[in-house]
Design brief:
6-stranded parallel beta sheet; 801 residues; 7-stranded parallel beta sheet; 14% strand; 24 strands; DNA-binding
Length: 801
DNA sequence: ATTCGTTCGGTTTTT
DNA sequence: CCGAACGAAT
């Protein structure tokens, strides 16, 4: 195992961190306060394990977000080598378990090409079931039922268990929804028939796999010699149990977390998983990291004083040796509208004062809906002159909201991909069977569905064997169905024939006409859809290129789906930085910014009205604010408005109770609003004018990360709202920082044995062979980490020294 | 079957 | 205010 700095990595840790890294003899809990170097400990610990001789593929490191996993992998790569870091089992719970389940699918009665239902797929299936069962969907609201099913799944309760559980049954009956159990059972069955798993199933079936197949359990227990888990306070029971099962043979477990940052109980996270870990592991060693390296004293102390108001925390006192810092301004605004302009103005001002870049700013809010006004203010640069003309817009980037893969046209294309991989995927089928319109309407689809339910098969099965199932449709309709079936079959045959993902995607576009139907209409939203489909194609292409370049032949559309279906919006790389980040507090967990605005700190919003009636609810909201404050390195600015436009009407609001929980000495409540009096007056006047006139269209044509409003098109009606902007999908390669344009494609005659190159991923190396014999010229390179690789010249991007 | 207009209901956070 | 969902019209 080759490490760059040998033992040097240990010198970059403080005593507590080093202790936590060095202890590798048994189960370990690291309570890591905000900003205390949690990720650093995990990263260095893995490096340390590698140094001790652990094989990378025997280390499992679980995170909650793809982003966290990716960042950790990059850091480890820098300290070791791509060769080593790429072999670690590192990823989100869902993605790691998805991989393991795909390998063992047949053991739990699934085809190995099972597909994954996202939240909207499973909701639409539940809705369908509710209707099929002739239940009232006003009563059995799909979202509610879904949440309930999700909750019990995370407690590992199957439909049979549910039926046997008097508490659940009674609760449903008392709640007037006695049929939840039946919906759950039907849902369960139909997912199974469709060969599909939802997010919760990935955890559930992983448990089933380990529970019912001792040989599999033993194999993985043997294989995973060390298991590390990040953000353990946010694990639910299903995750907790898997971790325990896998780790209990070697007992080499390191979990890192902070009970004060547990903010996902609505998703089944159970704080007791971390608080009572010592009950399961009597020899658990506890390490505390209490020194904050991120924030000023003011921010750290203010956060401490807030979280103290919660009961039942693990006692710890976060301290920092950082500078004292400025007080936290608490700015009262008249309206949400004014609040947005105040934030925009403050950003401009602080940026000028501190010489910051826009990347140094984040605006955090409780709900996604709050982003709209902010976007509008940012597009206007936070200022208007007397004529209302737009001045210097503030570039921003929104995380959350609609992700790229959720956009209608993109999801349609993806559903074709899914159908090719797994034609039994009923949700994908229902979605695209008549898109583009091919004369297969609701009535026909309803018949196919009905027949499928009766026979206990997938809709595809019914359509594929029309003779075995009497479908009461006329000849014309039957012909249309047959046409669809054979189209999918042709594509599937191509996939099985080994076509790569790009070839498949191109064929899908061509055969299904999804792109060409958008050509007829030149409306802006249609153009935007075309762009998005093109963007998806690019993403697929990059995926294939990357695979090619690294000599990995898993480049089919099946592989593409497996790797992307668990990606979210947060995982998108933004090509051009220099933007203010707008996101929910939840999405900000684990991140840090020099300057953080927390907006809408009002009763009924933060804390949310939904959580206000229970103590646990309030405490979770308080932790959420704690998370928000501790994201800030230097400046934290809190705003609230006394009136807010919500659900179509203006409501008056009051300051959040949480502001009273923060020690006054760290706040400057009377912070005056920025801007000159005239500006301020002007902003207010503008705000008032807005109430009179129809609002200036907040719908702006923006896409692919371009948040500036193109003035030339502002007269045409636009239908894509700002928060729906497409985002460029992440490239599969962990991009090397710095100037990517240095890395380009080269031809064989530029190269010779002995030449030095720098590869965009693998770093520097020496060419050991140039092979132009085949159709595609290849070179062989020995990189400085000792690994030798073959690179295809038509794909590999590097610089010749 | 598709499209367009109207009404109605709802509102947290996300892998 | 926004989207879903339903009903009526080519």
């Amino acid at each position: 195992m080759k490490l760059q700095d040998n033992d040097n990595y240990l010198s970059q840790l403080n005593d507590q961190q080093r202790d936590a890294v060095l202890y590798c003899d048994g189960p370990q809990l690291v309570i890591a306060g905000a900003g205390s170097g949690k990720t650093r400990v995990l990263t260095y610990k893995i490096v340390h394990l590698l140094h001790l001789g652990y094989d990378p593929w025997r280390i499992m490191a679980l995170t909650f977000t793809n982003k966290a996993a990716r960042e950790m992998r990059e850091r480890i790569e820098a300290l070791t080598s791509p060769e080593v870091s790429s072999r670690l089992w590192m990823g989100t719970f869902h993605s790691i378990f998805s991989q393991l389940l795909h390998r063992n699918a047949e053991r739990i009665g699934f085809a190995h090409d099972f597909t994954i239902y996202d939240t909207s797929d499973s909701r639409s299936l539940i809705k369908l079931i509710v209707r099929d069962m002739q239940l009232d969907d006003k009563l059995y609201k799909p979202a509610n039922v879904q949440a309930r099913i999700s909750k019990v799944k995370n407690m590992l309760i199957s439909p049979d268990d549910y039926a046997r559980n008097p508490d659940l049954i009674d609760a449903d009956r008392d709640g007037g929804m006695p049929h939840v159990v039946d919906i759950y059972r039907a849902y369960w069955k139909r997912c199974h028939i469709a060969g599909a798993m939802d997010f919760d199933d990935l955890l559930f079936y992983m448990n089933i796999l380990l529970r019912d197949h001792p040989d599999v359990l033993e194999r993985y227990q043997q294989m995973f010699a060390y298991i590390l888990v990040d953000e353990y306070q946010d694990t639910n029971f299903a995750q907790h149990l898997i971790v325990h099962q896998l780790s209990r043979l070697h007992n080499r477990l390191c979990v890192v977390g902070d009970d004060a940052q547990s903010i996902y109980s609505f998703r089944g996270a159970n704080i007791n998983n971390i608080l009572q870990l010592n009950k399961i592991y009597p020899d658990l060693k506890i390490f505390k990291l209490e020194q904050n390296y991120r924030s000023t004293q003011v921010i750290t102390q203010a956060a401490n004083s807030l979280i103290e108001k919660n009961e039942g925390q693990i006692p710890k006192k976060l301290f920092t040796a950082n500078q004292h810092g400025d007080d936290i301004p608490v700015i009262r605004c008249f309206s949400d509208y004014e609040e947005a302009y105040v934030v925009a103005n403050q950003i401009t001002r602080i940026k000028a004062r501190q010489g910051d870049s826009y990347e140094d700013f984040a605006v955090l809010y409780r709900t996604n809906a709050q982003s709209r006004v902010l976007e509008e203010a940012f597009s206007n640069g936070g200022r208007r002159d007397t004529h209302g003309n737009v001045r210097d817009a503030i570039p921003y980037r929104i995380y959350g909201g609609l992700s790229f893969y959720q956009r209608k046209e993109v999801k349609d294309a993806i559903c074709y991909f899914r159908l090719i991989v797994n034609p039994n995927d009923d949700e994908a089928l229902r979605r695209v069977i008549n898109y583009p319109a091919r004369g297969i309407g609701d009535v026909t689809v309803g018949k196919v569905n009905h027949c499928a339910v009766e026979q206990g098969v997938s809709m595809w099965e019914v359509m594929n064997h029309p003779d075995s199932f009497q479908l009461n449709v006329n000849r014309g309709t039957q012909a249309k169905l047959n046409g669809f079936v054979s189209m999918i079959k042709d594509l599937a045959a191509m996939n099985e024939g080994g076509a790569n993902a790009r070839e498949m995607a191109e064929s899908v576009y061509r055969k299904t006409l999804i792109l060409s139907v958008l050509m007829h209409d030149k409306s802006p939203e249609n153009i935007s859809r075309q762009e998005n489909l093109q963007e998806l194609l690019n993403a697929v292409g990059e995926f294939v290129d990357n695979k090619h370049e690294t000599g990995d032949d898993h480049n089919t559309i099946t592989d593409f789906l497996a790797e992307t279906s668990l990606l979210t919006d947060q995982d998108m790389d933004d090509p051009d930085g220099e933007k203010v980040t707008l996101m929910t507090v939840h999405a900000a967990k684990g991140l840090e910014f020099k300057n953080v605005f927390i907006v809408g700190v009002e009763e009924d919003l933060f804390p949310s009205a939904m959580s206000a009636d229970t103590l646990q609810g309030i405490e979770e909201e308080r932790r959420l604010l704690y998370v928000a404050i501790t994201r800030a390195k230097q400046n934290c600015i809190i705003t609230y408005a006394t009136s807010r436009y919500r659900n179509g009407e203006t409501k008056s609001c009051v300051m959040s109770r949480f502001l009273r929980d923060i020690d006054m000495q760290y706040l400057s409540i009377d912070a005056t609003r920025e801007a000159t009096p005239t500006r301020s007056w002007q902003d207010t006047a503008n705000a008032l004018m807005e109430q009179w006139q129809p609002r200036p269209s907040s719908r702006r044509y923006t896409w692919a990360g371009n948040s500036q409003t193109p003035l030339s098109t502002s007269s045409t009606p636009q239908h894509s709202t700002p928060s729906q902007r497409a985002v460029r999908p992440a490239t599969a390669s962990p991009a090397v920082s710095g100037d990517a344009s240095r890395f380009t494609i080269h031809t064989a005659d530029e190269l010779a044995v002995g030449k030095q190159i720098v590869h965009s991923r693998f770093g520097q190396g020496t060419v050991t062979q140039v092979d132009t014999s085949g159709a595609d010229a290849k070179i062989e390179v020995t990189f400085n980490d000792g690994t030798a690789r073959k690179l295809l010249l038509k794909f590999a991007k590097f610089e010749i020294l």
